[in-house]
């Protein structure tokens, strides 16, 4: 019994769903392009704004700026 046969048998029984596979004939370059496109889509304006705000905050608040009360 091959792996594909096992998955087919389990799918018919309703135990597991079929695994996600790459489309037939898809090369590594095509997969990398698709992955890169999804990464670019994930870089939205809100994430960029948050990163810039965090950088600005770090500029005005040096390390160790926090609660300095009761230090002696």
UniProtKB/TrEMBL annotation:
InterPro entries registered for this protein in UniProt: TAP46-like
GO terms assigned for molecular function: protein phosphatase 2A binding
Residue ranges, annotated region (Disordered): 1-72
A cellular component term, taken from the record's GO annotations: cytosol
Superkingdom of source: Eukaryota
Bias-annotated ranges (Basic and acidic residues): 47-62
Positions with biased composition (Acidic residues): 37-46
Pfam families referenced in this protein's UniProt entry, alphabetically: TAP42 (PF04177)
Gene Ontology annotations of biological process type: regulation of dephosphorylation; regulation of signal transduction
Cited PANTHER family: IMMUNOGLOBULIN-BINDING PROTEIN 1 (PTHR10933)
Name of protein: IGB1B protein
This protein's encoding gene: Igbp1b
């Amino acid at each position: 019994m091959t792996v594909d046969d096992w998955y087919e048998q389990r799918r018919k029984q309703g135990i597991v769903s079929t695994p996600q596979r790459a489309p037939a004939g898809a090369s590594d370059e095509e997969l990398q392009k698709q992955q890169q496109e999804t990464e670019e889509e994930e870089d939205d304006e809100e994430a960029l704004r948050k990163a810039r705000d965090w950088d600005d905050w770090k500029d005005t608040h040096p390390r160790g700026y926090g609660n300095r009360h009761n230090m002696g």
